[in-house]
Specification:
- The protein is mostly helical.
- The chain folds into 2 domains: 65 residues, Arc Repressor Mutant, subunit A (Orthogonal Bundle); 46 residues, Diphtheria Toxin Repressor, domain 2, CATH 1.10.60.10.
- 66% of the residues lie in helices and 5% in strands.
- It contains 6 helices and 2 strands; from the N terminus they run αααββααα.
- A two-stranded antiparallel sheet has the order 1-2.
- A hairpin with a 5-residue loop joins strand 1 and strand 2.
- The protein is elongated.
């Protein structure tokens, strides 16, 4: 199942929140993303159906193994792309916003080449 960028954003958000919270709920995702609860509920449903997350009887969201791998991949892209743009002189706010858009469309091949180039030149 190929996810749309909006679903990838939900996965990334769940991953980010899970790093600092003992459990993540839909309301946490909605507040973090500044999205409505119905929108988040629909997004969570898509991720559940695709087996990227599980939701227990208390509403606690957990990434599955495949969900965690994809969320980590998206998060790495976001952080690396943000840093690269800032190295190039883009302000942090713009770099973060642009990285968020780029992370969903850049190919694995291009991202790995960019990451390798930057690491080889000790910029990251």
């Amino acid at each position: 199942m190929t996810l749309k960028s909006s679903s990838e954003m939900y996965l990334e958000t769940i991953y980010i929140l899970s790093k600092s919270k003992p459990f993540v709920r839909s309301i946490d995702v909605a507040e973090y993303m500044n999205y409505s609860r119905p929108s988040v509920s629909r997004g969570i449903g898509i991720l559940k159906k695709g087996n990227y997350i599980t939701v227990d009887h208390n509403g606690h969201i957990t990434l599955t193994d495949s969900g965690l791998l994809l969320a980590q991949k998206i998060y790495e892209r976001h952080t690396v792309l943000s840093k690269v743009l800032m190295i190039l002189g883009v302000d942090e706010e713009t770099a973060t916003e642009d990285a968020c858009k780029i992370e969903h469309i850049i190919s694995d091949k291009s991202f790995q080449a960019l990451k390798k180039h930057v690491q080889d030149n000790k910029a990251l």
